[in-house]
Each structure stands twice: as structure tokens, then as C-alpha cells.
Amino acid sequence: MTHTLHRRGDFESLREDFPMLAMSAKGINDIGSAKKMRKFFQIILKYEIVNFGDMKTGNKFTTDINSIMDSMKDSSIVHAVFKDKDELKRCIEELKKEDLGISIVVSGLFDEVDECCRETGIKWNITEYSLGIHGKLDRLPDEDFLEFSTMCGHGMVAADLAKKMILDLKKKRISYREAAEELAKQCCCGIFNPYRAEKLLRKACAHWCLFES
Amino acid sequence: MRIDQEKCIACRRCNYYCTMNAIHLEEIPHLPGKVSSVVDEEECVECGACKRADVCPVDAIYEQTTTWPRTVRSNFSNPLVEHKETKIPGRGTEEMKTNDVTGRFKRGYAGISVEMGRPGTGARLSDLEKVAMAIAKVGVDFESKNPLTGLMVDKKRGKLSEEVLQEKVLSAIIEFVTPLEKVRLVLKAIKEASKKIETVFSLDLVCLPDEEGHIPTLPMAKQEGFIYRINGKTNLGLGRPKALEVE
């Protein structure tokens, strides 16, 4: 389950994309952790986050805060997406202070996350690197569409859906925000970044000429 | 997944939500003049995205009852299905996400995951076996808690059960820990195997920093021609009790 790894995009785009997750370790600190998860969720909601969710309950666009809070279990994995590094840093600072004792993982540009850790006095534990995509690369959609689909690590955002959204935008059937949120709805965990998606949609609409099949 | 052809009004809305591009319009032979969206069951990975999207205006999409070995598809592809081995929904394990507490990755070792079929192409388990068997030749122990390892009939060789080889999943992860001395050999084997498959995979590398704060596996990956990306995952180390205390 490495679902927040492998997000594609350039430096500028990824500067606005920091998924965070919290989980407990089975058999070690999971018993009674639902309470800590609720506290984690309360903390992250104080900050400017563009998406949130718990895989089993839903995300910002498919459910509501109370449902997620009420459904929290010891096995829950709670997610949030930040678009702003300073906001992320402030949240990390509070999480450090609260010392909930659950594991917290932040994805994003290593230099930026490392800076947040240094400035908040956190000595991170371990990092995971993406060594890219290999194999029959001609089966992949264009890089522009991969930037949308890799924002859901479970692969629930089809490249075809991103194309359809671009087509609908060009035909003025939908707004940029609606298109970004429609894409975000498909990612159960709430790690899809609709703020970034909206910007990518604007770029793609300017670059791509698509036809209804 | 299936579509009730009598109900379907051929609006195509569901087609775009299919993660495998496996839903198409077809004429229905037993319903003269009728066109319907149809799921190509060979390509469908039972991820449930079409149903969850909730876009069908006539509620024609349904999940059929599947039996072994087709059940493998939803187990690996539908993120809401919890694997009985890991108790975690999805394809993998807790891996580095709880490493601050579990101490799963130790100094002198690296964790490698090969995420077959990701992004967005899906993978036949026969392709997955090719890569697993190539890695196994170097001598690794596949992660016992990973649900894929549970499908191996010969874990030393990375051999999967014959019954599942033609099944297709959205993604499944070949996961293992290996001593640093073997990292380059493993990466070489993965690179060779990548030329023999009909799908793609995303490759992950996990490692604790050394005493000077450097990640020892990054130069090894570079030497084998792998370029690491500028973004990835960082475990902040806020979990308690700390792994050392657990030990």
C-alpha cells in the first residue's frame, strides 16, 4: 500500500501537493487508536486542506466530516491533502506538540518535506523513493493524463475520465471546479488533490484537442 | 462487474469511469436493435469503480457473484475489499508507514516493492510471476504479510498458483526486504524482467538513512540506471512506542 507514492508532475505542480496520512500499527499500538485518529482528524481540519478522507467512509466530496468522525475505528487510515507548505509545517508542529503516538507519513517533494521537519525539530524516521515506471511504457497514457490518474494510488481515477472532463470543459458543459471534484470523488481515500487538478485541467484544455468518440 | 443489458440505455456515462477501459457499446444479439454498454469480463479487474461512480441513470451496473480464482481480481483491485491476510484494504502492507513503531526496516537492509500494473494498465498474474521469479533467483524472502505472497505455491522461486495466472488485477505488489549487498543484483534482475512483460510497474525503494544521514541505496539505484523522483514519502517518526522500545 504505497498509494501516495508515484505522483507524477513537475516541480512547480508538486509544490502544491502534500498528502498526509495517519495510521496505527497492527498488533502494537492499534488497540484504542480510534480516539487518537479522531483527534488527528480534528487537528488537520483546523488547517487549509484541499481534501480529506478515510478510505472506508469516503472523502471530502462523497461524505461529510461527521460521518468520517463517527466511523473512525482502530484500523482507520485517515488522509488529508495540503496545497501549501507553510500550512503543512504548522500542522506538523501541532501534531508534534499533541504527541498522539500514531504514525504519520507525509508525501511530497523531499526537499520541502525535509525543510518542514527541520523547522519543526522533527527527526524523520524513514523515506520511500519512487524509481519510476518500467516495462511496456507504450501502454501508458500521455504524461499529462498520468498526472491526474497517479493522484489516486489505487488507480481509481481513469485517464479516460480526465479526457472526458477536458472534453466537457471545452464544450462548456462543466466548470473547472466541478471537473476537478468529479475526478476527486473517485479516489476513496481522499488523497486526490482537486486544487492541483483544476490547474492541470486548465493547462490540458489549452494543450489538447480531443474529439468525442 | 456486469451491466444489465435490458436496463442499459447506452448513454455511455459509465464507460469513462472504467479504470481498465473495459466498457464499450455493443449490439446485443438476443435483443434485436438494442445497443448496450457491455463489460469485457476478460479485461475487467472487478475494481468496482463503475458502480461506485454512481452515474448510471437506470441503475444497470451490478456486481456479479464471483468464484475462485476470479475472486483474486476484486481482492487486489477494489480498494474497499480487505485482505484476510493483512486486515488492510488494498494491495500491500503497512510497509514504511508504521516503521517508526514496527522497526520493520533495519539498517543494512532495503525494502523494494514492484507495483505491477500501476499506473492504470493492470497486470495479468502471469506477468507478475515472471518478475517475481526473476527476483527470486537473486535470493530474497517475499513479504509474508503481503497478500500476493499468499498466492505463491513456491515462495523460494516466486512461483504462483497455476489457477490464478490468467487473472488480471489493477495492481499487485511484489514486496520484500533485502540486504544492501543484494540491492544492485535485484535491481538488475528487475530491469531484465521488465523487458519480458506486457504491462508496466512502478518501483519503490525504502531505506533508513545511514549514520551521516545519507540514503545508501540511492547511489546503487543510480549505478543500475534508475532515476529516483524528487517526490516521495517520509515517515515523520511520531509513532509510539518507538520501534527500539518495542524490541
Describe the structure.
The complex is a heterodimer of chains A (213) and B (247). Chain A has 213 residues and is an alpha+beta fold. Chain A folds into two domains: 11-119, Alpha-Beta Plaits (2-Layer Sandwich), CATH 3.30.70.1150; 138-207, no CATH class. Helix content of chain A is 42%, strand content 17%. Chain A contains nine helices and six strands. Chain A has a five-stranded antiparallel β-sheet with strand order 3-2-4-1-5. Chain A is globular, with a radius of gyration of 18 Å. With 247 residues, chain B is of the alpha+beta class. Chain B has two domains: 1-65, Alpha-Beta Plaits (2-Layer Sandwich); 82-246, 2-Layer Sandwich (Alpha-Beta Plaits). In chain B, 20% of the residues lie in helices and 22% in strands. Chain B has seven helices and 13 strands. Chain B has helices at residues 49-52, 71-77, 99-102, 125-136, 183-194, 217-223, 243-246; strands at residues 2-3, 23-27, 35-39, 61-62, 109-116, 123-124, 141-142, 152-154, 159-160, 168-169, 172-179, 200-207, 231-235. In chain B, the strands form five sheets. A four-stranded antiparallel β-sheet of chain B has the order 7-11-5-12, covered by helices on one side. In chain B, strand 8 (152-154) and strand 9 (159-160) form a beta hairpin. The longest helix of chain B is centred in the middle third of the chain and has 12 residues, at 125-136. The termini of chain B are far apart. The relative contact order of chain B is 0.15. Classes of the chains: A alpha+beta (213), B alpha+beta (247).
